[in-house]
TrEMBL record:
Belongs to the ABC transporter superfamily. SUPFAM superfamilies: P-loop containing nucleoside triphosphate hydrolases. It comes from Lihuaxuella thermophila. Gene3D superfamilies: P-loop containing nucleotide triphosphate hydrolases (3.40.50.300). GO terms for molecular function: ATP binding; ATP hydrolysis activity; ATPase-coupled transmembrane transporter activity; cobalt ion transmembrane transporter activity. This is Energy-coupling factor transport system ATP-binding protein. The keyword Cell membrane applies. PANTHER family: ABC-TYPE COBALT TRANSPORT SYSTEM, ATPASE COMPONENT, HEAVY METAL TRANSPORTER.
């Protein structure tokens, strides 16, 4: 059984204007990027997976449980969503209280909740900010606090919505390490992103949404090799991929390191 499955999923906010149009997907534990232009339905899809929205037609199953038959609060043990905008998530006046909130809601003992919160804050490099007010911190740090808040609940599925927005290079590298750590622990990581370089460097599988449907689904290398279909979805491949294509290379490069190794072989 897939850890997460979607069957013929339809959703609309307004009658007659479907945002998602018959999405069917199975997710194993491969880190997966979901890409596509604005309005393709990516964030709506994430909210449906989390149970914050319910399908108009079709079904979403989280570890075999239909999201129509449970609540987002009950699903929190299994699936966590890091929102794109930290201000949609943060509401406490201390970092430690913010990160402990989820574990306490899951009925963890206070000492356990605090230990899990501190471990999560350590993962994101914010363990020295326990008593700070999140609203006094910058957007980048607020985003890391939101990540810690989800990680502290220790869900099996973690969804990131645009995790690299407002992040500098060290923070981006830390987020990469977090995703790799979650993968090593056997967790499923999904990421909605417009950052194609990040998607190419981190994720094994990539799904392209276009006009509420799945246009492409495959390994990240396979997907970024599909130049014409990506144009149809108004998605540009990673910079290094474009470089290789413009130079007429047969290989599809996903990272600068791959390009450098290729050039060394050819020299």
């Amino acid at each position: 059984m897939a850890i997460l499955s979607v069957e013929n999923l339809h959703f609309s906010y307004t009658t007659g204007q479907d945002i998602l149009k018959g999405i069917t997907l199975q997710f194993d534990r491969r880190p997966t990027a979901i890409i596509g232009q604005n309005g393709a339905g990516k964030t709506t899809f994430a909210k449906l997976l989390k149970g914050l929205l319910k399908p108009l037609h079709g079904d979403v199953y989280v570890k075999g449980v239909n999201t129509k038959e449970t609540t987002a609060a009950q699903l929190a043990r299994q699936i966590g969503l890091v929102f794109q905008n930290p201000h949609d998530q943060i509401f406490k006046s201390k970092v430690i209280d913010e990160v402990m909130f989820g574990p306490l809601n899951l009925k963890q003992e206070k000492e356990t909740a605090r230990a899990n919160a501190i471990e999560a804050l350590h993962m994101v490099g914010m363990e020295n900010k326990l008593d700070k007010n999140p609203y006094d911190l910058g957007l980048s740090e607020q985003k890391l606090i939101c990540i810690a808040s989800v990680l502290a609940m220790q869900p099996e599925i973690v969804i990131f919505d645009e995790p690299t927005i407002a992040q500098d290079y060290p923070a981006r590298e830390r987020i990469k390490e977090i995703i790799q750590h979650l993968r090593q622990k056997g967790k499923l990581v999904l990421t909605i992103t417009h950052d194609m370089d990040f998607a190419a460097a981190v994720f094994e599988r990539t799904i392209v949404f276009a006009q509420g449907r799945v246009l492409l689904d495959g390994t990240t290398r396979e997907v970024f090799a599909e130049r014409e279909l990506l144009k149809h979805a108004h998605v540009e491949p990673p910079h290094v991929t474009q470089l290789g294509q413009k130079l007429g290379c047969r290989e599809t490069f996903l990272t600068a390191e791959e390009w450098i190794r290729y050039k060394r072989r050819k020299s």
